[in-house]
Amino acid sequence: MFKATVSPVFLLALLAATNLTRAQQGQSTAVPATLPYDIPYGPPITLQQARTVIGAAEAEARRRNWQYAVAVVDSEGMLVSCDRMDDTQLASIAIAEAKAHASAQFRRPTKAFQDAVGNGSMATLSVPGVLAGEGGIPIVIGGKLIGAIGASGGAGVQDSVIAEAGAAAVK
User: 79: domain CATH number?
Assistant: First the structure.
């Protein structure tokens, strides 16, 4: 007959992990007094404003010699305008639009989702419409969200640089 033996070190490690888990479950989390990302929705971005946003984003991309797709959505997340620079990967069109949509719908930069996942919040990925990557930025004028920009074509941090340049053009 086979007899299993368990190391005393293993038992101590298992006991410590169990106690840590129980302690964490018993801890209460402070409830914030205000809602995060509580930006009121404003009137939708106009086509002219969207073109200004895209123009500024593309100017920044050209200055850096990067190829980009840029999408602008209104305050409801509906596409207003989208451009793809020559030689930009084709997948960037859909990615840019998805980033802009998520940013408008959730009233936050898409980097917030990336950070949440990076901090272990895997449940974030189960929320419909979430895009956990940089490059989606809300467009806020007068304290109200009028739309969002999404940029895609490079690494996430590059996408944010392009999106921020565009969003800043109408503030």
Answer: 3.30.450.150
Local structure of 18: helix, strand or coil = helix
In a domain, 79, yes or no: yes
Residue 152, beta-bridge partner list: 69
Residue by residue, what is the 3-state secondary structure of 86-139? Answer: CCCCCHHHHHHHHHHHHHHHHCCCCHHHHHHHHCCCHHHHHCCCCCCCCCEEEE
Regarding pTM above 0.90, the answer is no
- CA-nearest of 140, 159, 156 to 71 is 159
pLDDT tens figures, 125-145: 999 999 999 999 999 999 999
Task: Supply the range of the domain harboring residue 136.
Answer: 47-168
- Residue 9, sorted as left (phi over 0), alpha (psi -120 to 50) or beta, turns out to be alpha
Angle between helices 111-118 and 156-168 (to 10 degrees): 150
